[in-house]
Amino acid sequence: MLAVHYREVADDVWSAEVVHQRLRIIGELDFSNAGRLTPVMHAALGAGIRVMDVSELAFCDVAGARAIVAAAETLSPGTTPLTLTGVDGMLATVLGLMGGLDSAVLHVSEREADT
Prior knowledge:
Elements: E1 8-10, E2 14-19, E3 22-29, H1 34-46, E4 51-60, H2 62-73, E5 82-87, H3 89-97, E6 106-110
Parallel strand pairs: 3-4, 4-5, 5-6
Antiparallel strand pairs: 1-2, 2-3
Helix pairs in contact: 1-2
């Protein structure tokens, strides 16, 4: 059902919605719920969404980051890679440490620092 209704999904601690051809993820993503977001991401990518806004993602552990990378890696070679926007420094660090910053499948745009 999550794959069918990927455009607006509310889970216990995260929600996802498509806004202006971007999949916006809000809340917390961790080992206990990353598996429930996976079909949502796959459905969005299958529908041609190539931008994921994580600027309102309050927390993301390694399992959540791995789910994002795994979804990006399902894209066919030569297609437009997934772009993550609004990435905070911690998520960028986790992605870098786990080798998830492969520009062929994933582009990262870090969140602007508050001034």
